[in-house]
Amino acid sequence: MRLDKYICKSTELTRNEAKKLLKTGMVTVNDEVVKNGAAQISETCRVAIEGQPLIKRGARYIMMFKPLDTICSNVDEVHPSVLHFLDVDKAFDLHIAGRLDVDTTGLVLITDDGKWSHQITSPRKACEKRYRVWLDEPLESSVAEAFARGVQLKGESSLTQPAQLQVIDDKEVLLTITEGKYHQVKRMFAAVGNHVVGLHREKIGNITLDEELEPGQWRYLTEQEVDSVR
């Protein structure tokens, strides 16, 4: 890891502030002054500022109940980013593992551990995501079987992977998928002649949205929840 990046992760300093600090000569690596922010350090290196050892902050793992009309992005656009709801240091250093559309609510997982989030977002991992779906038209009885086989999405050359459909009533269902194609749930129902009017993600892998959370609220994942993704 670059030395300036290590300093940023271990303190509240920005990258520019870390570079200025390095120029002062107050940073040592293994008791030697280092002024080059691009210098590579390993986990065994001893980094200190004015003799005080730095301890790298551990990775952060968060679940949030994403509200309506928010975006899963590090950049605010027309709608606010879900990261604005986090009262933590350097919230915008975090990223969302499995984004939701602006009009979709529910579980989002937020972290700064790229390897961990890859277990969720990589198509090869086939991580299950469960959605509660509200439909415009009554569900036809043939849809569950069609989803189990895979359906042809508009603009796609291959069928979707098998999906599980649980019927709550004729206009409300639970859908579990292992892919993350663009607007996939909406496009799957469009492929069978229906229209999604409400969409809420309840579960990713073995992590279920905490029933105690209200829209916009969040909590850190438990160790068991974090390990369930590895």
TrEMBL record:
GO cellular component, one term: cytosol
First-level EC class: isomerase
GO molecular function annotations of the record: 16S rRNA pseudouridine(516) synthase activity; RNA binding
Entry annotated with the keyword Manganese: no
InterPro entries according to UniProt: PsdUridine_s_RsuA/RluB/E/F_cat, PsdUridine_synth_cat_dom_sf, PsdUridine_synth_RsuA/RluA, PsdUridine_synth_RsuA/RluB/E/F, PsdUridine_synth_RsuA/RluB_CS, RsuA_PseudoU_synthase, S4_RNA-bd, S4_RNA-bd_sf
This protein's UniProt keywords: Isomerase, RNA-binding
Gene Ontology terms describing biological process: enzyme-directed rRNA pseudouridine synthesis
EC nos: 5.4.99.-
RNA-binding S4 domain segment(s): 1-60
Gene3D superfamilies reported for this sequence: Alpha-L RNA-binding motif, Pseudouridine synthase I, catalytic domain, N-terminal subdomain, RNA-binding S4 domain
Catalytic activity: uridine(516) in 16S rRNA = pseudouridine(516) in 16S rRNA
Top-level taxon of the source organism: Bacteria
Entry's family note: Belongs to the pseudouridine synthase RsuA family.
PANTHER family cross-referenced by the UniProt entry: PSEUDOURIDINE SYNTHASE (PTHR47683:SF4), PSEUDOURIDINE SYNTHASE FAMILY PROTEIN-RELATED (PTHR47683)
Protein task: Responsible for synthesis of pseudouridine from uracil-516 in 16S ribosomal RNA.
Record-given protein name: Pseudouridine synthase
Source species of the chain: Thalassomonas viridans
